[in-house]
Amino acid sequence: MTTRYTKDHEYIRLEGDTGTVGISDYAQSQLGDVVYVELPGVGKSLAKGAEAAVVESVKAASEVYAPVSGEVVEVNSDLESSPGTVNEDPAGRGWFMKIRVKDEGELNDLMTEEQYQEFLKSIS
Amino acid sequence: MAEPAHSDEPLLQTPLHAEHVALGARMVPFAGYDMPVQYPTGILTEHNWTREHAGLFDVSHMGQAFLVAEDKSHETAARALEALIPADVLNLKPNQQRYSQLLADDGGILDDLMVTRLGAPGHEGWLYLVVNASMKEADYAHIQARLPEGVTLQRKDGLALMALQGPSAAGVLAKLAPETADLAFMMSADVQIDGTWCHLSRSGYTGEDGFEISCKAEDAAKLWNKLLADPEVKPIGLGARDSLRLEAGLCLYGHDIDTTTSPIEAGLIWSIQKRRREEGCFPGAERVQREIKEGPARVRVGIRPEGRAPAREGAVITTPDGREVGIVTSGGFGPTVNGPVAMGYVAKDVSAVGTDLHLVVRGKPIPAKVAAMPFAPHRYKR
Asked: Is the ipTM of this complex over 0.95?
């Protein structure tokens, strides 16, 4: 199991050829209380960096981008009724979608946990 | 996830800046000031706390000023201000406060403001003004340039301003200044709180009962902490201030009202008293009187989107068959309503409560209905 991060604070956790995508704990804390999540349709093909979902806090709407290219195979529809789960458990129950990864090589462009923590230090 | 843009301009600080930092607030640039957008508990909790208990807001960034008639006559000061705003200032009772707007010659709104006729001895002929932080320099220049001989504008940058809002506000304040208990809505008083001089009014920007409290900058931290020492009081940031005022149906300058909107379009006719409607003699009176008589072409309305997706400022409003009829000027999630709420301007023919509309959010139409405002009932002390 490999977890990688983008500079836009999405994570992808790879299990087999499927990656679970969400936003980092840092991202949820920066957003504040999440009140709405718009998820893509299952079956949608996403290019790396394409807009995959929208997360809205009381203050503002933010885009969530696909960390890698692939097809959406499952979405976390619990977020529709309980968007606050993104704040409570971003790495667990607050996941957004599962993507069947097209090219595992794209993960090499992303940050490891250690690199992401260093990145957070550099922007704070 | 996009990073917010950062500005390199030096930010001003209110007299309570150190208190916000000590409380762990997230500070953001707002109207040139470094202001708390939220404290660690977050906007939803702060919003709900204000509706259920009492919230304390630092609004010291707002512009406080006095309009002073040298002849110590209220009429002199009132006439000078009535030349700039459509409210009846002349008939204000001592210590009475009114909401109004600085109007441009075409009837557009330059800013909105609060006006109080001061009542303390020695302040005959003094009006107290509170204007928006983002507009204060422009407002002061506008007012200054239009004052007659014998009336001066004195900006009071050395004053702090805080708001105590919510159903517990009156009880909290009565413990510190018992004479505030009977103060009516939109009336003001000069009181001592814990040895600190304060000028306060029973008013606010949340739809709740509460007070706006002005004091000297050097006393602000002491007063802030005295109020916060009450377990009913928690600090509230700008984030919840915005969601609270949106649910209360109150306008935010630069969003819901600006130089293109008139007070009549904005639904603010209640703030233009009968004498002024009839007499006119204020900037833009021609447009205001015409719109009162004929009805404005567009009006500000409340809107409730169906479902959970918030519609934000800038969302286009259409009829269900796709005819563009307006634009959202404020929108978001209303914690007390527990759903999305918005306000915006629509053509008169689609402005009746209950009218079906669509809001275009990220290219997709969301069904919505014109709704009565406020979204959360006002609970002012009448």
From this structure: no
